[in-house]
Specification:
The protein has a single domain (2-210, 275-357), classed as Rossmann fold (3-Layer(aba) Sandwich), CATH 3.40.50. By secondary structure, the chain is an alpha/beta fold. It is built from 13 helices and 12 strands. α6 links the parallel β7 and β8 (201-205). The strands form 3 sheets. It has an 8-stranded mixed beta sheet, with helices on both faces. A two-stranded antiparallel sheet has the order 5-6. A two-stranded antiparallel sheet has the order 9-10. 35% of the residues lie in helices and 16% in strands. Residues 1-35 have low confidence and may be disordered. It has helices at residues 2-12, 81-84, 103-110, 112-121, 151-166, 183-194, 217-224, 236-248, 275-282, 286-289, 294-298, 314-326, 344-357, and strands at 50-57, 71-78, 92-96, 127-131, 144-145, 149-150, 176-181, 201-205, 263-265, 271-273, 302-308, 332-336.
Length: 363
């Protein structure tokens, strides 16, 4: 599992240096990692497109043990017609970012204003919302944890409620889509299964963490040896593993991580992998969740996913697609020539948004 995370990370490392929509951006600056996180330069904003940066208070995140803020930024992109048609309502796409990047930099890299403009000119008009779920560990995993907070409810309730109250949305399930990349794709699956009444259709791009995560005694020992103050310097794969741990095996009585490591001792006092922690992690695996959430998934108007053929996550994403097929859940699936990031902006523009236009109520 760690190798797959690191393989995905290799793609993420080029994120800030890869041109996005239509490959027409100016030469991007080298990757920057303040606090271990990825940055990307601001995108062009076409004429008429409105971009709002808003702060959403989330009761679902209040009191989390990690001390992450319950005040969450979100980038809101409105089509040019929004200002010209004051009585019109619009469908909304909620777009979830990946690990070690915040919502604003993901919005930057994906060139969301250009994607909204391009689709609007083709008659597909959306509001696109990119929330920030970055945490002290590098990412929320879009999970429900007393340690990190309930990020599933943040997205499906608090964020949606805010957008519906402050913008002219089609404020029903039929007017909402959920999409995401990498960790955000993982969030599409888990939020989609646990909050099926909120979104009409869902689409996961290069989703991470599909198969149940496992550890060896050696890898678990190395994980347990990382001081919490040194997480940012522990490397992308280790940092992602620790973020998964605090999201999936939280323990309010076990500071400073407030989580249980996957390491215990056998009856002779020798170290062994803790099977209960591994089971807790498996409980958060989309692949393992699907058989017990069939009816939730069948309630969607449409389900889509894709992955690059050179992406280290292709095995996980293929397994999810095959499990959906096995359980009789209709889904659209595609692979394409590419790595973890090198075509995702184009596909959001040219594949994902048109996918939602086929299924959501558009007016």
């Amino acid at each position: 599992m760690l190798n797959k995370i690191v393989a995905g990370a290799a793609g993420l490392l080029v994120l800030a240096a890869t041109p996005a929509v239509a490959q027409n951006a100016a030469a991007a600056r080298p990757p920057a990692f303040p606090g271990g996180n990825i940055t990307a330069p601001p995108p062009p904003v076409p004429a008429g497109i409105r971009v709002d940066s808003v702060t959403v208070h989330s009761p679902a995140l209040v009191g989390n043990l990690e001390g992450d803020s319950a005040e969450r930024n979100a980038m809101v992109v409105l089509p040019a017609s929004y200002a010209k048609s004051p009585k019109r309502r619009y469908p909304v796409i909620y777009y979830l970012h990946g690990f070690a990047i915040d919502g604003r930099n993901f919005y930057n890299f994906m060139h969301v204003p250009e994607a909204v403009d391009h689709n609007a000119r083709a008659g597909r008009e959306f509001i696109v919302v990119v929330p920030d779920t970055l945490t002290k560990m590098g990412g929320s995993m879009y999970s429900s944890s007393v340690t990190t907070g309930d990020f599933q409810t943040f997205v499906a309730r608090d964020l949606v409620d805010y957008i519906d109250k402050h913008y002219r949305t089609i404020a029903t399930r039929k007017g909402r889509g959920l999409a995401g990349h990498s960790m955000g794709g993982y969030g599409v699956w888990t939020i989609g299964m646990t909050h099926p009444g909120v979104f009409d259709s869902i689409y996961a791009q290069s989703a991470c963490c599909g198969e149940p995560r496992t550890e060896t005694v050696d890898s678990a020992t190395k994980m347990a040896a990382v001081p919490i103050a040194a997480v940012d310097k522990a490397g992308f794969g280790m940092r992602a593993g620790l973020a998964s741990m605090v999201a999936w095996s939280p323990d309010p009585k076990n500071p400073p991580y407030y989580a249980d490591f996957p390491l215990t001792k056998d009856k002779d006092g020798k170290p062994m992998v803790d099977p209960l922690v591994i089971a807790e992690w498996a409980n958060n695996s989309p692949l393992a969740m699907i058989p017990s959430h069939v009816w939730a998934l069948r309630s969607y108007d449409a389900i889509g996913s894709d992955v690059g053929t050179k992406d280290g996550l292709i095995r996980d994403d293929t397994a999810i697609h095959e499990m959906l097929d096995k359980q009789g859940i209709a889904n659209t699936w595609a692979t394409y020539e590419g790595t973890h990031v090198d075509h995702i902006a184009q596909r959001f523009d040219q594949v994902v948004l048109p996918f939602f236009a086929q299924h959501l109520r558009m007016k």
